[in-house]
Design brief:
With about 325 residues, this protein is α+β, with helices and mostly antiparallel strands. The chain has two domains: about 5-140, no CATH class; about 145-325, no CATH class. Helices cover about 30% and strands about 25% of the residues. The protein has a five-stranded mixed beta barrel. Strands 7-8-10-13 form a four-stranded mixed beta sheet. The relative contact order is 0.13.
């Protein structure tokens, strides 16, 4: 069973139970820990209760969607049993069901990496990851939902999605979507009827010792299909590494920002994407060589129709020397 679903089901089952003891929180142990608990706030919000060895003082954290209270004495009700203990409490503050399910899933990815008896330093380190991730939801998005869907689709279709996740947006200033320090992949999507994409001139002029592939895909919005989180869930089923799962969610939150809650209802035609995903060697794409652009001119962009450009399936293209290119489904 998918971890996100099982955690959410545990939470909704708790919501349905009326607490026998009015001065306590309904809670139960997490599937991967007997000491750490999941519970329900009086408002119906999800909460995590994390047992910690060290009671060092820390300032509480209160953001729009998430709060963290350190070193609180709590009474938890697990069925008829009551337990008093000191916990750090992580709470989500929204009734949005999609957001709740996402919060539970990501929080469990973080908490599963904690030992049963974490030190205060270990706990703060992992909580800081959650804080940074959820604080990004107040910021504007970095790119279109369509573009992000296309990048996730390339990862979802990959032979080795782990390697792509490691190479995905390696640095905020990186001008390529995937860059492993040797080779690059840039993903372009279109919702039109022709395979026309916009390029910054630098995206067709990589450094001399790098190879570059352009992934092109038609991404058509539909009433039914797959949304960004459908693709994310599909990827996580193949990627067992918890740190890579968190990195995937981290880039999603960083990219979507304040548009996060909008993407659950935006679906794209998955079969159309399957039928149209194509890779091109950058050397075959018409462009303006950087040597022909005066130094005083910057931010040069061009639109290019790839309909008649040869694909890498139609030429001899050796991927054996490139871990990045070997990881994709060509």
């Amino acid at each position: 069973m998918d971890m996100g679903y099982s955690i959410y089901k545990i939470f909704t089952d708790l919501q349905k139970k009326e607490s026998i003891h009015k001065d306590s929180f309904s809670a139960t142990s997490l599937p991967f820990s007997d000491r750490h608990k999941i519970g329900v706030a009086p408002e119906g919000y999800p909460m995590f209760f994390i047992e910690c060895n060290n009671s060092a003082n820390s300032l509480d954290i209160n953001l729009e969607f998430i709060s963290v209270l350190f070193n609180r004495t709590c009474r938890l009700s697990e069925g008829e049993k009551q337990v008093d203990n000191i916990y750090t409490i992580i709470s989500l503050k929204t009734e949005n069901i999609d957001f709740q399910q996402y919060f539970l899933e990501v929080a469990c990815i973080v908490l599963e990496q904690l030992p049963e008896s974490p030190s205060h330093k270990q706990l703060k380190t992992e909580i800081q990851k959650l804080i940074e991730l959820f604080s990004r939801f107040n910021r504007p998005h970095r790119k279109t939902i369509q573009g992000l869907w296309a990048e996730l689709f390339v990862i979802e279709q990959a032979k080795y999605p782990e390697y792509l996740i490691q190479s995905w947006h390696a640095a905020p200033e990186d001008k390529f979507d995937f860059n492993d320090g040797q080779d690059k992949i840039e993903v372009k999507s279109t919702s039109g009827v022709r395979r026309v994409h916009s390029f910054a001139i630098e995206q067709l002029n990589p450094n001399r010792n790098s190879n570059l592939l352009i992934a092109s895909v038609f991404v058509i919005q539909t009433g039914r299909g797959k949304n960004i989180f459908d693709l994310k869930d599909s990827i996580c089923k193949r990627v067992q590494n918890l740190q890579l799962q968190f990195r995937l969610n981290e880039i999603l939150s960083q990219t979507l920002g304040s548009d996060f809650d909008k993407v659950f209802d935006v679906y794209f035609d998955y079969q159309q994407a399957l039928d149209t995903l194509t890779f091109y060697d950058f050397k075959d794409i018409p462009t303006i060589h950087s040597d022909n652009i005066p130094e005083e001119v910057s931010n040069v962009r061009l639109d290019c129709d790839l309909s008649r450009v040869i694909t890498i399936k139609d030429k001899v293209f050796n991927t054996s020397q490139s871990p990045l290119f070997r990881s994709i489904q060509i």
